[in-house]
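User: I've been going back and forth on whether these two constructs are worth ordering. Before I decide, could you fold them both?

Assistant: Sure. I'll take them in the order you sent them. The first construct and its structure tokens:
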Amino acid sequence: MKQLKGSADLASIVVRELTKRYGNLTAVNQISLVVETGEIFGMLGPNGAGKTTTVEILVGLRTADAGEVKVLGFDPVTEDKKLKRSIGVQLQMPALFPRLTVEEALQLNATFYPDPFPVDQVLEWMGLTDRRKMFTHKLSGGQLQRLIVGMAIIGNGKVLFLDEPTTGLDPQARHNLWDVFQLLQKMGKTIFLTTHYMEEAQYLCDRVAIIDHGSIIALGTPDQLIGDQFEEKAIELSEMGSENETILRELPGVTRVQTAHNQITLYSTHVEATIRELIQLEAEQRLAISGLAIRKASLEDVFLKLTGRSIRQ
């Protein structure tokens, strides 16, 4: 599989054969990728797949055991001071000064950069204008998450590294941040994003890499990955036990059956024939159908097919 795309000379991030080990564990296993300037690039994978380790190497917080990394042309280890002035970084568990207000935390972060965004602008983007005088230790979980993202954005960096930026947010707050990320992309920013939300990656990302056990197992646009893996449509059945899998696998048109989250998904090349047989089986009282829905295959379907497990496992 060809993993590099585009010209490295025009790229914001270039990674070649990157490897990181912890004792006998290979956390990142010879991954290679190129992220082009102005791209929203997503890295997806189960917990422990190597996503956060990759981000930490790219921003200079960890040293690779092998391979080459360039961000904006800089080596994150030997040229870290030059690099850090030009990037924004949001990690999953940052340390904050609890006696600073929201506004003060943003002002402090802004001082580290040559041309930061105005504090008022970032407060508005993050939906925190009415919390500007609140101490950070009094924020709710969602408010704190938005502040952390705002602290990464305020530097007006050319490349933004966002490690699960919408975790713990309600759907409205998540969609609001999506709008901000797309606005930043229109400004010419490059965004390297890790996420647990498949719909987020499918909506936002120009390209995604799926990483499992430290290796990239798929790389491309969401539509490319879906098209490569599925010609079928998905038929979802809720509240149906896995004991029915044998019957379902034998239905006309069905190529694959996936069980996850108390739901069975059938992938069928002939949806009409599959549905007719399902209705017949229910009429014969051999199956009880509940919550039937038909949809196109999604990025989550690709993830489940390639890794064989849920994103959160």
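The second construct, handled the same way:
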Amino acid sequence: MVILVPFFYGLYFSMTNWNGVSESIKFVGLVHFGRVFSQPGFIYSFLISMAYTVINVILVNAVGFALALLVTSNLRFRNFYRAGFFAPYLIGGIVLGYIWQFLFNSTLPALGSALGIEALRTSFLSRPNSVIWAMSVVNTWQYAGYIMLIFIAAIQAIPASLMEAAKVDGAGYFRRVFRILIPMMANAFTISLFLTLTTSFKQFDMNFTLTNGGPATRFAENPVFASQLLAMDIFNTAKANRMAEAQAKAVILFVALAVVSIIQVAVNKRKEIEQ
């Protein structure tokens, strides 16, 4: 009732002329699906969403794994650090976006002016080449603590005697991590990669409040929004009362996300079996 019915209802609307206002609905077939791929703004949003997803998958999992190694060591107050690293995940994306917008637009430029650091004088959110990286930093700050918990559970499930035996045999710390720890955590990496991939590809709330799609840039000789991810492009299309076109874009997003996710899970599951 809450998933299948709305999905197929939306699929039907994507093949109509529905604008969200008029009661007269006409079936137009696949017109919208062909039209959206001729829009430079949509193509750019699709490509930048893929780039943003790749950056996040790498950053979030790398930072989350590093934090998990840190808080499962003999570090003092490690439970306190676990809570602290997880806390940003509890902050809503809307609030998070406004907090970091203030940091990027006011705090860092003021700090750059005071210290004479030219790179910080201009907000990273106002530069087309750095805005996606800035968004990825914010997403990593929020999401790495959650992924850390998944890795902690996987690390604690590995027998301590196995790591001790490798240490006695002369294996160094990094060799134990890469030869024992990571292979035995394959199922945790399958889950974490899936979560970060799907979350990044569907990102909207933080994108809306942090950058609102800006700044402007050019793609294929056309003006586009440098940080307008796919979900936000769909939102703006719907807001312009082009509901059927927005629904067609949403179907494309679903298909792309489903294909990539299935491939990612299949590849990781195969590696789990091999290891």
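Notes on the second construct follow. The chain has one domain: 36-240+249-274. The chain has a mean pLDDT of 92.
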